[in-house]
Amino acid sequence: MSSLQLFAENDLKGESVTLRGDIPKLSGLGFRKKAMSLRVSGHPWVVFTEDNYVGDFRCYKGENLSIPGYEKKICSVRVIKRGLDKPQLVIYEDTYYGGQALTLSGPVESFESSGFQGKGLSEIAVKGAWIIYEENKFRGRSRIVIAGDQNYDYYERVISLGLVI
C-alpha cells in the first residue's frame, strides 16, 4: 500500500500526517500549506499548491528532507496508483470520447502533424501520469491527468502532452 507522510519541519521532523489516498483539501486534516518535508512509500505522489488538484504540481518519490519551491504550499495530493512505467493515454478529438482517437505512450510536442491541433477535447489516462498543455512545446496553462482519470468534456483543448517523471 502506498502512503505519503507530510512533516511540518525539514528533515522529516515535527508534526506529521500520513495519507493513504487522494486528498482534495488538506485543510480538513489541519495540514494545508504546512509541509516542509515528506516521505513517500510505494507509488509516486503528486502534490498541488491549490485545493482540488489544481495549481502548480510536482511528483515525489522516496524521502525528501526538503521540498524546495513547495515548502508550506501543499494544499492537495494524489497518488499515482499504477506507477509511471509504460504510460498510455487515449485522446479524442471531440467531447464524450467522440471522433478520431489517438493512443499515446510518450510526450507530444505538437499535434499539428496528427490532425489533432486544437481538437483534443476528451481523454482517458490508462497508465502513468500526464501533463496536458494549452500550447505547443509544453507551454501555457497545464493540468495533470493520472491513470484512471476520464475527462469527457474538458473546456481546454489539448495542444501538447508531457509525462510526469
UniProtKB/TrEMBL annotation:
| PANTHER family tied to this protein | BETA/GAMMA CRYSTALLIN, VOLTAGE-GATED HYDROGEN CHANNEL 1
Query: Which regions form coiled coils?
Result: none
* UniProt-listed SMART domains: XTALbg
Give the species: Leptobrachium leishanense
Domain Beta/gamma crystallin 'Greek key', residue spans: 128-165
PROSITE patterns from the UniProt entry:
CRYSTALLIN_BETA_GAMMA (PS50915)
Pfam families for the chain: Crystall
Whether Repeat counts among this entry's keywords is yes
Question: SUPFAM superfamilies from the xrefs?
Answer: gamma-Crystallin-like
Q: What is this protein called?
A: Beta/gamma crystallin 'Greek key' domain-containing protein
Q: Which family does it belong to?
A: Belongs to the beta/gamma-crystallin family.
Q: Which InterPro entries match?
A: Beta/Gamma-Crystallin, Beta/gamma_crystallin, G_crystallin-like
The Gene Ontology terms for molecular function here are:
structural constituent of eye lens
Give the lineage: Eukaryota, Metazoa, Chordata, Craniata, Vertebrata
Q: Which UniProt keywords apply?
A: Eye lens protein, Repeat
Function, in words: Crystallins are the dominant structural components of the vertebrate eye lens.
